Amino acid sequence: MDKFDQLFDCSNKKLSLYRFSLPLKKTINFKGHYLNTREGLWLIEHNPHGQDYIGEVSPLPGFSQETLAACQTQLIDALQAGTLTNQCISKQQANHQQVDFTAPFLPSVSFALFCLQQRIPWALQTSNVAQDIALMTIPLLQGSLNEIIKRYRELNYPATVKLKVARLSVAEDIKVIKSLIELNPAVQLRLDANQQWTAIQYIDFLDAIDRKCIDYIEEPTLSTMDNISISTQFKVSIALDESLLISNPLPISKCIKALIIKPTLIGYSDRIQALLTHAQQQQLSLSMSASFESPIALQQLAYLAKQWQQKTQLKVSLGLDTLHAFQPEIIHAIKDNSDLQRFITSQATCIWHS
Known about the structure:
By secondary structure, the chain is α/β, with parallel strands linked by helices. 38% of the residues lie in helices and 22% in strands. The strands form 2 sheets. Strands 4-12-11-10-9-8-7-6-5 form a 9-stranded parallel sheet. Helix 5 packs parallel to helix 6 and helix 6 packs parallel to helix 7. The radius of gyration is 21 Å and the shape is globular.
């Protein structure tokens, strides 16, 4: 835990660690992990003279490299040892240095510590990032065909939507896409396959649809080489998502259009900066993508996306349309309640405090 000492000196800070379990509207399948609640940790720094700050630890089963239990153990060990403190915050601000949240931090923990250390607000109305920065919000459609069509109509036929594919049969996915195109022939679809198709299924899919309506497809198969080869053959664009979690050199191809970045899965380290630099060099689009974090972390991700657009001058879109997955009372609580501490104590249990 030596690196905690390098980052934080919290002798005069009050910290609390809460464990939350937020109910979802319905059970969601995350690569074989069926969840009806979203669980995680909130690490809060209490400021008696101003706003409290919060970092969220919420690894996503089936996608994250670590478990929530491992994250909780790492944090409590550091807190009990008195090494998770905030001295380095003022040093970093004074020296204008970016702290690299790498090992021994687990990715979910590093994201939480970054939000705390950078003083990232939990509510956007308190942000000092320029409010006039326009980010495109891409709504997520999922569920049965009827649910998808109903949602698309409720959203008033948006020009661009994200759609989960490869969870049903190829034939069913084709039917959904053709139905959306019938409703709006000009619709642009961002399809997310989560590497679940085989190469043959991907070819069969592309053979059967109007490819002009495809903005890009995220990770069609497990093989990046197959994705590039097939996509080039069919003249469609792809985006990198899961493959960004692996620290291999990023592939370069004309068919690669965007990077889908999930900071809570990657961890906020030099890897994020490397991805932003690569996107600038290759002139790729960026999407700030959610992993079904709590409403608090979703707002912080939106804040970071605005920072990215300011910094890179690239087109950054928001893939954060997962708030509707939560029960309505959760959504209302975070929207209507400006008191962070009251919301936390109503939704979570304190498991450690200084």
